[in-house]
Specification:
The complex is a heterodimer of chains A (about 130) and B (about 1250). Chain A is an alpha+beta fold. Chain A has helices at about 25-45, 45-50, 90-110; strands at about 1-5, 10-15, 55-60, 65-70, 75-85. Chain A has a single domain (about 1-110), classed as Beta-Lactamase (2-Layer Sandwich). Chain A has three helices and five strands. Chain A has a five-stranded antiparallel beta sheet. In chain A, a hairpin with a 5-residue loop joins strand 4 (about 65-70) and strand 5 (about 75-85). Chain B has 28 helices and 52 strands. In chain B, strands 8, 10, 12, 16, 18, 19 and 20 form a seven-stranded mixed beta sheet that branches. In chain B, strands 21, 23, 25, 26, 27 and 30 form a six-stranded antiparallel beta sheet that branches. Chain B starts with 5 loop residues before the first strand and ends in a 13-residue tail after the last strand. Chain B folds into seven domains: about 5-195, Rossmann fold; about 455-470 and about 480-550; about 565-645 and about 705-765, Immunoglobulins (Immunoglobulin-like); about 650-695, no CATH class; about 770-915, Immunoglobulin-like (Sandwich); about 920-1025, Immunoglobulin-like (Sandwich); about 1035-1215. Classes of the chains: A alpha+beta (about 130), B alpha+beta (about 1250). The interface of A and B includes residues 23, 28, 32, 85 and 117 of A. Chain B: This is Trafficking protein particle complex subunit 10. Chain B: Pfam families: Ig_TRAPPC10, TRAPPC10, TRAPPC10_1st. Chain B: It is found in: Golgi apparatus. Chain B: It comes from Leptobrachium leishanense.
């Protein structure tokens, strides 16, 4: 699967994919999925903030992958791409993975040596 | 015709036929609440029925579970109103019917008796007691009397008829629902049982499917589409779960039938409500996965469309298609290549057309978001089909491709009958698209453009760009790069602006290929160099692009007129820049070097013909005259500029420039608020469009070389991958500011250019006038002591030649010392010492000549000279008199002396005036002290400087015949800073005292500790003048306690006796006023003043006495005073003035020195005394009140000179004891 953190301006902060082959396709997929993330954020509007529901759910399925989205209150976007055939991952697992990812991201932000907006380097941002 | 629940009718068929129409009309008119088992929510449903004639065959046989054909209710119709007839035939008939029902254990029946008024009247012999209905009830409905209904005149519009109708209908509905509930419940139970058996071997999904679908059909029949859909969804989920389990290794036997190879891929068929062919296949257990899925989805689609949820259809369709692809993969079903693509493509279009078929166009448009996924999927699939069948290529399909196409088309089978007449059916489209390249292109472009438009329409620009990229791919394969290019550019710009490196690299690679084919040399090379620098590519690939650039550069190097410009930024990044000298300020003609640090991004060493920096020259009117010092001070230290690495050519936008902000409360000083301010908000908050417009592509287009008037160049540079340093050397020419604007390099016929350099790197060239600066080395200069002066010559543009001299005009009291061997330090402007050279100093009468050693321009020459400023004049007596100079007083109070030296410099015709301020190290004051007729002179010497001095050889001399006998310690004494040293002499004289005595004080001083021997030390001198210092009168005061007591007591009066004695005969100099009474006498005014408020003077405190001017005359005055305090009290002051009657001073209208009357206090005598030393004209400061009363003929008081009165009781004290009765002890506790 693939994880991606992207900031407000859809600039990628962190991309990691396992396995590493076919990375390009993942990148395209994630980038395209930001369309749906944006759409969902726009649709939710204020309600999103009020409800504190950061998980956006399944963004869209493709033939091979499922793309899930998550957005923080500061509009930092997390996207996760999972193989469609991997049925072991249910919604709840995805949700908790996102939450862990969010925590890790918060840790990175707390690092005083981290320059906001930089690509996140060498961080075990894995779930 | 739609299915409806079956209701059988037995009995009188004619009668039923008569009421049938109104019955079937009225039945669905009112809804009925259906309460259901298993906690399902009750529903209001409108019932409809299909009424058929009762036949025994209709009754379901044992084991037949068909629900659709199941009769839910059996009605027996009779019109019988005659008991006889009833008994004869009707009863038997009903019994027979009942038996048939009972045989099939059916309990849902109803007997309807139709009564008609007309018939009743005809038959008069009817028993009025019981009606036929009652009879039937008693015969058949033993406990369910409501199973027999009476319908009165059903065809007439009477109120009775109406009433009976509504009763009947309500009953009918109730019974129908009851039947439904029971029968369906029964069915569901059986179905569930069947489902529970699914783990048993031999269980078949197909069989179960048929059973559950039956239920769905019934719900559909009852128009309960929601419930029907639930049945299908359950089947769907069940099947999916089995497939997943299969994938997990838990396969069911029955699944094997679904694993058979796919041979037909004709897509979904959604136009028929029920696809009976496929249903049959399922029933026969011979359907494959696609067929099952197709059928299932077609049913779901139908139901969803009934439910008016077309958008759910599209969502589910997409999900289904993805799912099917996955499931085929999971089940390892063999599918010919392309078959699935065909199936998906057809299905997408079929779903889209189906939805279009039941929606308004406007509705379709508003819900593009729901359908665009299908469009995009179809496009994708068509493209892959095109690729597979060789339709997307320049050459066209080969025979293998054609064979594959034929196979694929064969798999489509024949077109379905229901779409055969539709022009745009998916089937036709696919067949056409696969038939030829042109047709494929038409269909593909059509689809792709529609999809892009849709994506753009709903704001999914990224998705649109991705489809656009596919399209570009298509065009590239078709060798139509000019059409591919705009799509690639669009995508590239977006990836760039959002910083997605990998897609960016990939797209750029495609773009490079396009540009190469299009022979767009410049853009191609630009792309090439970006790619060659791209770290996301393998080194081999980067080398390839790099070689492309080199090849181009080499190939056309002979045509120098045609030069291409490429952005340097893609070849190398500017890391830092450093000027030497580090302050980046250089004088005209000076040498300057600039060291550039570059990071080459190329994979291999880059050999450049030359590398140059282009400077913009500006003559800043204000700054070009500025000196090196000024420029140096205002430059960042270190002289190096560090450049921000431009990530991805600045697509990221500028970095945040944050600064902290504190706001303090002005009143309390505490922090009110604090925050972070973003300084470059205007840069950050820009719309993405403008940001993209400013991206490097656009900027690079505007590359142009500014005029090369000021360039620094280095030839034959080789940039190794990574960090490189290039050093430029130049000689500064015109003064001004040079800013680095552009960097350029040449590589064969390629010019590499960095059009903007930020932050600004600049150097300044200045031209400077030669300058001389003279300043003391220490904080302040002291007069009288040799001091060091520092000379600084800034040579500027002037070259100091051998023999150049500085001519210093000698001021009268300033001497330049020639001793020692002074040497000048010559250093460059940046304070690098160059050498030390000797300096010769010659002194003549008027001038001191300094011969300067030669020095190059723009250097500093520094040397030090000793100088002595003579102590201010005044040390010498002019003709035995103290020179009276006004300045003396001024300079005394200021304690400084100003010296001016004019210097003639070789570089200027004008003299430089240097002003030096010397401070006097010592300050002297004198006091004349008298004791009777003996006189003493006290000189107080205060060291006002910060140094310590040793004083020696103090002497006091005068021109008069007076001797001074020192009373102080002889020998050298140290006086430390801010300390005073006192000298006292007794004055002795032999003859008459002179009226005026000029005195000259002189003392040698030298700084302590000795640092070096001073040759030019002058003694410190002090001149003062004593006048009228011979004692004329002594005043003696005596306080006597009251006669009967030993001591004075507080509060008691004591007598004060003042005794004034004339000590000498009249003097010539004395301006006596004679009173003609035989004696020359004078009028004196005395005044008792008690400064400390210790005494209260009782009675007059002042008075006038007349004393003959003769030695020894004495006058005594008695007064009474009272001590106010106990203790040793000082005597009150007794002051003596000369009393001048008003008529006697007519010549002396200058009233300054006169005191008007006794109420005016006289200045402090000591103060007056010191003033008097300067001369009589400075005796007293005029008071304002005296001026006002000037000219009035008033008697005046003239104070005596301080030496003229000797107060013998000065300093005396007397013991006063406290009065006995009031012991007041004041204790203050703090």
């Amino acid at each position: 699967y693939l994880q991606c953190v992207s900031d407000l301006a859809n600039y990628p902060l962190y991309i990691r994919s396992i396995p590493t082959e076919n990375q390009l396709k993942f990148h395209y997929t994630v980038h395209t999925s930001l369309d749906v993330v944006d759409e969902k954020i726009a649709a939710m509007g204020k309600a999103l903030v009020d409800q504190r529901e950061l998980y956006l759910g399944l963004l869209y399925p493709t033939e091979d992958y499922k793309v899930y989205g998550y957005v923080t209150n500061s509009k930092v976007k997390f996207v996760m791409v999972v193989d469609s055939s991997n049925t072991a991952l249910r919604d709840n697992e995805i949700r908790s993975m996102f939450r862990k990812l969010h925590n890790s991201y918060t840790d990175v932000m707390c690092n005083p040596f981290y320059n906001p907006g930089d690509t996140i380097q060498s961080r075990p941002l894995c779930v | 015709m739609r299915n409806k629940p079956i209701v059988t009718c037995a009995g009188d068929q004619n009668l039923f036929t008569a009421v049938y129409s109104s019955l079937s009309q009225q039945l669905p008119r009112e809804p009925m609440e259906w309460r259901r088992a298993y906690g399902r929510a009750p529903k209001m449903i409108h019932l409809e029925s299909n009424f058929v004639q009762f036949k025994e065959e209709l009754l379901p046989k044992e084991g037949n579970k068909a629900l659709l054909t199941f009769p839910f209710l059996h009605i027996y119709w009779t019109e019988c109103c005659d008991t006889e007839v009833y008994k004869a035939s009707t009863k038997d008939d009903i019994t027979k019917w009942q038996n048939a029902l009972r045989a099939h254990s059916t309990t849902d029946w109803l007997i309807v008796v139709v009564e008609s008024e007309a018939k009743k009247k005809n038959k008069t012999n009817i028993l009025p007691r019981t009606s036929i209905a009652d009879k039937i009830r008693s015969d058949f409905c033993n406990k369910q009397s409501d199973r027999c209904m009476v319908l009165v005149d059903p065809l007439k519009e009477t109120s009775r008829s109406q009433e009976s109708w509504s009763l009947f209908l309500a009953k009918l509905r109730t019974l129908l629902l009851t039947s439904f509930t029971r029968n369906l419940g029964h069915f569901e139970d059986e179905m569930r049982t069947l489902r529970e058996k699914r783990t048993e071997p031999g269980w078949s999904f197909c069989d179960y499917f048929m059973v559950q679908e039956e239920l769905a059909f019934v719900f559909e029949m009852l128009q309960q589409f929601e419930d029907a859909l639930v049945q299908y969804d359950e089947l769907d989920a069940l099947f999916s779960q089995y497939v997943l389990n299969f994938g997990a290794g838990d396969g069911a036997n029955w699944l094997s039938s679904f694993c058979q190879p796919v041979q037909s891929w004709d897509g979904l068929a959604l136009r028929k409500p029920i696809d009976m062919e496929k249903r049959d296949l399922i029933q026969k257990r011979s359907a494959n996965l696609l067929e099952l899925r197709s059928y299932l989805f077609s049913r779901q689609c139908t139901l969803l469309l009934f439910l008016q949820r077309p958008w759910e259809v599209s969502h589910r369709a997409l999900e289904l298609l993805h799912n099917c692809v996955q499931e085929l993969r999971l089940l390892e079903v063999s599918v010919p290549p392309g078959a699935l693509d065909c199936w998906v493509f057809l299905s997408c279009l079929e779903v889209l057309q189906r939805i279009e078929g039941c929606c308004e166009p406007a509705q379709m448009e508003a819900n593009v978001a729901h359908t665009v996924g299908l469009w995009s999927y179809a496009t994708e699939k068509l493209q892959s089909l095109g690729l597979l069948c060789g339709l997307v290529s320049e050459t066209g399909p080969c025979s293998e491709d054609l064979q594959r196409t034929v196979d694929l088309l064969a798999g489509l089978g024949a077109e379905r009958a229901e779409t055969a007449n539709t022009a745009q059916s998916p089937y036709k489209k696919l067949q056409e698209a696969l038939s030829s390249e042109d047709a494929f292109e038409k269909h593909y472009l059509d689809l792709a453009h529609t999809t892009i438009e849709m994506y753009n329409g709903i704001g999914r620009s990224r998705s649109a760009k991705l489809v656009g990229k596919d399209l570009a791919d298509f065009y590239t394969r078709k060798s139509v790069p000019q059409k591919a290019e705009p799509f690639l550019q669009g995508a590239l710009r977006m990836y760039q602006s959002e910083g997605w490196a990998l897609p960016l690299t990939h797209t750029r690679k495609q773009l490079a290929e396009c540009q190469r084919q299009l022979h767009q040399t410049e853009p191609y090379l630009q792309t090439c160099c970006l790619l060659a620098a791209d770290v996301n590519l393998a080194v081999e690939e980067r080398r390839l692009y790099y070689q492309e650039i080199l090849a181009f550069a080499a190939q056309r190097s002979d045509h120098s007129d045609d030069v291409l410009c490429l952005p340097l930024a893609s070849f190398a990044q500017l890391v830092s820049l450093r000027f030497e000298p580090p302050n980046s300020v250089v004088h005209v003609g000076g040498s300057l070097s600039m060291e550039l640090t570059l990071r080459s991004l190329m994979p291999e060493a880059l050999h450049l013909d030359y590398f140059g920096g282009y400077f913009h020259y500006s003559l800043d009117k204000n700054s070009y005259r500025k000196t090196a010092e000024y420029l140096t001070r205002h430059k960042p230290v270190g002289g190096s500029v560090t450049f921000q690495p431009e990530e991805n050519q600045g697509t990221r936008g500028p970095a945040l420039e944050l600064s902290e902000m504190y706001e303090k409360s002005p009143s309390e000083g505490g922090l009110i608020s604090t925050g972070v301010i973003c300084k470059n908000v205007h840069m950050l908050i820009r719309t993405p469009d403008t940001q993209a417009a400013g991206s490097s592509l656009e900027r690079n287009a505007a590359i142009s070389l500014e005029d090369g008037a000021n360039t620094l160049k280095c030839s034959n540079i080789t940039l190794q991958p990574g960090i490189n340093q290039i050093t430029f050397h130049t000689q500064a020419r015109e003064p001004g500011t040079y800013s680095l604007r552009q960097l350029g390099a040449a590589l064969g016929c390629l010019n590499l250019l960095l059009p903007h350099v930020y932050p600004i790197a600049q150097y300044d060239v200045y031209s400077q006038e030669p300058q001389l600066k003279v300043e003391p080395r220490s904080e302040c200069l002291l007069a009288g002591v040799p001091q060091k002066l520092r000379f600084t010559v800034t040579t500027g543009h002037y070259r100091v030649k051998e023999g150049d001299t500085l001519q210093l005009s000698n001021a009268d009291s300033l001497t330049f010392l020639t001793g020692g061997s002074p040497s000048a330090t010559i250093s460059t402007n940046s304070n690098c010492e160059v050498c030390q050279k000797p300096l010769s100093v010659q002194r003549s009468d008027k001038v001191t000549t300094l011969s300067l050693p030669p020095a190059p321009p723009y250097h500093l020459m520094e040397f030090e000279l000793n100088v002595v400023c003579a102590l201010p004049e005044g040390g010498r007596l002019l003709n035995g008199e103290v020179p009276r100079r006004k300045e003396r007083a001024d300079s005394c109070s200021a304690n400084v002396t100003e010296q001016r030296v004019s210097v003639d410099c070789p570089w200027s015709i004008y003299s430089t005036i240097i002003s030096l301020t010397f401070h006097l190290p010592l300050k002297a004051q004198h006091v004349l002290l008298s004791s009777g007729t003996r006189k003493y002179i006290q000189v107080c010497l205060e060291n006002t400087s910060v140094f310590n001095f040793q004083l020696s050889d103090s002497s006091l001399t005068t021109s008069q015949d007076v001797a001074f006998r020192p009373l102080h310690m002889a020998g050298a004494q140290d006086v430390y800073t801010r300390q005073c040293l006192y000298f006292v002499w007794e004055v002795t004289w032999c003859q008459d005292l002179p009226a005026s005595l000029p005195v000259h004080f002189s003392v040698n001083f030298s700084p302590v500790p000795f640092t070096e021997p001073y040759e030019h030390l002058q003694p410190f001198t002090y001149l003062f003048h004593l006048e009228h210092f011979y004692t004329l009168y002594t005043v003696r005061a005596e306080i006597l306690p009251p006669e009967d007591t030993m001591f004075c007591k507080t509060g008691s009066l004591c007598s004060l006796e003042i005794c004034i004695t004339r000590l000498c005969d009249p003097l010539d100099s004395e301006e006596t006023l004679t009173d003609c009474e035989g004696y020359r006498s004078t009028q004196l005014f005395y005044q008792v003043v008690d400064g400390g408020s210790n005494w209260a003077v009782c009675g007059r405190s002042s008075g006038m006495v007349v004393i003959p001017v003769q030695q020894g005359t004495r006058h005594t005055v008695q007064m009474e005073v009272m001590p106010l305090f106990a203790g040793y009290l000082p005597y009150p002051d007794v002051r003596l003035f000369r009393y001048l009657p008003h008529h006697s001073h007519s010549q002396q209208l200058d009233a300054d020195s006169w005191i008007e009357n006794d109420s005016v206090s006289v200045e402090d005598p000591s103060d007056v005394g010191s003033m008097r030393a300067q001369g009589p004209s400075l005796s007293t400061v005029p008071s304002t009140s005296s001026k006002e009363q000037k000219g009035l003929p008033m008697p005046r008081l003239q104070p005596f000179h301080p030496g003229q009165i000797s107060n013998s009781s000065a300093g005396r004290q007397i013991l006063v004891i406290p009065s006995t009765d009031d012991h007041v002890l004041e204790v203050n506790v703090t």
